[in-house]
């Protein structure tokens, strides 16, 4: 069977080859993406030693249901995003290959320092890829904040190593509850703030607006779907398996995540640019999903993670496409654009409605479970989630109505009024939009299809990690 | 005002971390008083992680090298990639392949003659450092940095040096590919990526420690060529896109 280390090594190998043969780098990228996507489906569960040293003395990769789902999701989304933004890749195929290796490594590794290395690889690639839109100042801002975040994480694991004496995640997950209160406090704060920069939580997220509001068709799906999903998956791993937070610190963390959710959703109602609205919505979803992981709702969080990843994939690439063709993505000016492109419009609409959580769509099932999980904690959290969803509904439905119905109020909407705005007739976007749309509707009608699967995925989050019980290939 | 606030924040963070760790209840080991018996490092020092391996299990006289290239070799591959992607970022953003920066002061005779003497010495020391990485302190990263420093000297003294830089791309790619190929041989023959499949030999000999010196040479070459590329890119003038 396929050793999952290949998912990390093959993109690296292709990138090293690509340095020598620059003209083939784009074909190498797609070769690597396809190969990785196929391999991800054939990876097997287990613990894989590197260098032949048993953990915790060497590094090992841990493939349980959760990380298996993670690598499949990441590789598929990465392939789709690169197909959507194929024209924009240009010289950036090698950073994309490295980014893929880094993201796979982040999800697979079972070693705290090895995670840091892959975290660095993935974020440095992200800085480079984000220069595609030419806003260097924003990239610099991102770079500074991202570096501070990863340094905080590094400081956290230095303290872990000094106390636990090992860098293995399984060791930390077993020993964490036995550590003294002080160490628990400092380690959880440092690791939380380190990850929060990438996870877009307030007050660590000032880079997001600059990067996300300027995306193009390549970076839009890449950042909003691939990078975002990876960091949520990792966040879930850290704060469900490794670190258990309790007491006042738990309340602070929860407050941070849900304040992020409400603030972002509220800000989204105030702007009228498609990409800006989607940016705020992404920040909001980040708050919601990380908050769910914190209160122990792994199942609901994974449901919403899937919902967010696919919905944002379609919506962000559509918005970026609109911007690229018209140098503006103001909703007012784009009114009625979906009349001209009904297929994309269908996918966009279903994604938005699913993200809000309306019945008949997959998102309803997710929201239903979210509220259910939230009621197990106290009455404030479900209230906050409902309020946020209401705000979400307001701006998304306002946006959808505008985009489908041209003309002023009281005016009869006709084809003539439809905006002069255009979109590239990208075959990939239409196909992705239609497929995702149908999947969301399917998931809404037969929730059991996804329910059982996600249940399996989220079970490893409830147990502490172990590397010895599962067989080695 | 901004500086004042950031200084204040830094002090607050420092005080917070210090007070939490210095507390007697925190069990944070004092400097030099760590109990090694419960840490993984004890086994690295005694070289008895794996009972079935022939002893000495890594065969490297330098314990840091054992950890960096053998026990945690995968991290080193990752670090190489970090350097690789950073070099690539410099190349992409500075838009390479344009004119070399012309300094206002031309390289004079003394500089040219001096560089010819000194680069050879620096190169040899750099190569010595990464070949002997498993015996003495040092290794691929410092050795590579020394190689790059000699390249920087040549770059400053020689106007025509730019044309020779193409070779570094090939070196960078080949050494990276070879590291991974060696790792993959371990994966397919011994079921574990980067498995040290060569005999470890006698500690202290030049040909000992199995795969470690070979990997360190490759790492040294890769780091050297990457850093040289970065230098080359910084010393070229970015043109219009």
TrEMBL record, chain A:
Keywords, sorted A to Z: Cell membrane, Membrane, Transmembrane, Transmembrane helix, Ubiquinone
TM spans (from-to): 6-21, 28-46, 66-85, 92-109, 115-133, 140-163, 183-203, 215-236, 242-264, 276-295, 301-323, 343-365, 377-397, 426-446
GO CC term (a single one): plasma membrane
Pfam families for the chain: Proton_antipo_M
Domain NADH:quinone oxidoreductase/Mrp antiporter transmembrane: 110-390
Superkingdom field: Bacteria
Keyword flag Transmembrane: yes
Membrane topology: Multi-pass membrane protein
Subcellular location: Cell membrane; Membrane
Similarity section: Belongs to the CPA3 antiporters (TC 2.A.63) subunit D family.
Descriptive protein name: NADH-ubiquinone oxidoreductase
Species whose genome carries this gene: Petrotoga mexicana DSM 14811
Source lineage: Bacteria, Thermotogati, Thermotogota, Thermotogae, Petrotogales
UniProtKB/TrEMBL annotation, chain B:
Swiss-Prot/TrEMBL keywords: Cell membrane, Membrane, Transmembrane, Transmembrane helix
Keyword presence, Membrane: yes
Keyword Transmembrane helix (UniProt): yes
Family to which the UniProt record says this protein belongs: Belongs to the CPA3 antiporters (TC 2.A.63) subunit B family.
GO CC terms, sorted: plasma membrane
Location relative to the cell: Cell membrane
Segments traversing the membrane: 80-97, 109-131, 137-156, 177-197
The protein, known as: Cation:proton antiporter
Entries under Pfam families matching the protein: MbhE, MnhB
């Amino acid at each position: 069977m396929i050793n999952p280390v290949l998912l990390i090594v093959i993109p690296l190998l292709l990138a090293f080859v690509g340095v020598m043969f620059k003209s083939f780098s784009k074909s190498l990228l797609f070769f690597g993406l396809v190969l990785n996507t196929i391999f991800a489906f054939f990876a097997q569960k287990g613990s894989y030693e590197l260098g032949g040293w048993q953990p915790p003395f060497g590094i090992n990769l841990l493939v349980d249901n959760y990380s298996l789902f993670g690598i499949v999701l990441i590789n598929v989304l990465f392939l789709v995003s690169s197909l959507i933004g194929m024209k924009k890749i240009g010289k950036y195929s090698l950073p994309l290959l490295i980014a893929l290796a880094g993201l796979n490594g982040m999800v697979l590794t079972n070693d705290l320092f090895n995670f840091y290395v892959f975290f660095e690889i993935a974020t440095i690639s992200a800085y480079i890829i984000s220069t595609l839109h030419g806003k260097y100042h924003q990239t610099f801002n991102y770079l500074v904040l991202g570096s501070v975040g990863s340094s905080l994480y590094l400081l956290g694991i230095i303290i872990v190593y000094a106390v636990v004496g090992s860098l293995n995640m399984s060791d930390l997950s077993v020993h964490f509850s036995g550590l003294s209160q002080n160490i628990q406090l400092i380690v959880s704060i440092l690791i939380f703030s380190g990850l929060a920069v990438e996870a877009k939580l307030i007050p660590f997220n000032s880079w997001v607006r600059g990067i996300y509001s300027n995306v193009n068709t390549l970076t839009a799906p890449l950042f909003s779907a691939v990078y975002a999903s990876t960091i949520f998956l990792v966040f879930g791993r850290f704060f469900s398996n490794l670190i258990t937070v309790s007491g006042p610190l738990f309340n602070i963390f929860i407050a941070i995540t849900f304040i992020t959710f409400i603030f972002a959703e509220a800000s989204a109602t105030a702007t009228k640019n498609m990409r800006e609205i989607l940016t705020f919505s992404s920040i909001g979803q980040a708050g919601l999903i990380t908050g769910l992981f914190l209160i122990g709702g792994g199942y609901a969080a994974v449901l919403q993670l899937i919902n967010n990843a696919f919905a944002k994939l379609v919506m962000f690439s559509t918005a970026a496409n609109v911007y690229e063709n018209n140098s503006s993505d103001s909703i007012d000016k784009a009114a009625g654009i979906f009349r001209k492109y009904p297929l994309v419009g269908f996918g966009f609409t279903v994604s938005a409605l699913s993200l809000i959580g309306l019945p008949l769509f997959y998102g309803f099932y997710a929201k239903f479970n979210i509220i259910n999980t939230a009621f197990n904690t106290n009455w404030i959290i479900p209230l906050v989630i409902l309020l946020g969803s209401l705000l979400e509904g307001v701006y998304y439905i306002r946006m959808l109505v505008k985009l489908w119905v041209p003309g002023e109020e009281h005016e009869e909407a006709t084809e003539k009024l439809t905006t002069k705005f255009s979109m590239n007739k990208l075959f990939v976007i239409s196909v992705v939009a239609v497929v995702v749309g149908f999947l969301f509707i399917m998931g809404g009608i037969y929730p059991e299809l996804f329910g059982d699967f996600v249940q399996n995925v989220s079970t490893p989050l409830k147990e502490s990690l172990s590397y010895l019980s599962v067989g080695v290939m | 005002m901004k500086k004042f606030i950031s200084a204040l924040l830094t002090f607050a963070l420092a005080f917070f971390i210090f007070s939490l760790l210095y507390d007697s209840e925190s069990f944070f080991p004092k400097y030099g008083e760590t109990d090694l018996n419960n840490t993984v490092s004890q086994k690295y020092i005694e070289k008895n992680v794996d009972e079935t391996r022939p002893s000495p299990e890594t065969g490297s006289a330098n314990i840091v090298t054992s950890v960096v290239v053998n026990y945690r070799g995968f991290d080193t591959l990752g670090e190489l990639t970090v350097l690789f992607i950073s070099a690539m970022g410099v190349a992409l953003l500075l838009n390479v392949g344009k004119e070399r920066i012309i300094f206002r002061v031309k390289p004079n005779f003394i500089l040219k003659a001096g560089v010819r003497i000194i680069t050879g010495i620096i190169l040899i020391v750099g190569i010595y450092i990464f070949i002997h990485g498993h015996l003495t302190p040092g290794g691929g990263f410092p050795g590579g940095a020394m190689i790059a420093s000699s390249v920087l000297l040549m770059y400053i003294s020689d106007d025509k040096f730019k044309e020779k830089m193409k070779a570094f791309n090939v070196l960078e790619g080949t050494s990276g590919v070879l590291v991974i190929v060696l790792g993959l041989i371990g994966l397919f023959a011994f079921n574990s990526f980067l498995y040290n499949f060569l005999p470890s030999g006698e500690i202290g000999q030049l040909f000992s420690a199995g795969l470690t010196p070979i990997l360190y040479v490759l790492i040294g070459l890769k780091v050297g060529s990457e850093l040289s590329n970065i230098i080359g890119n910084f010393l070229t003038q970015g043109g219009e896109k």
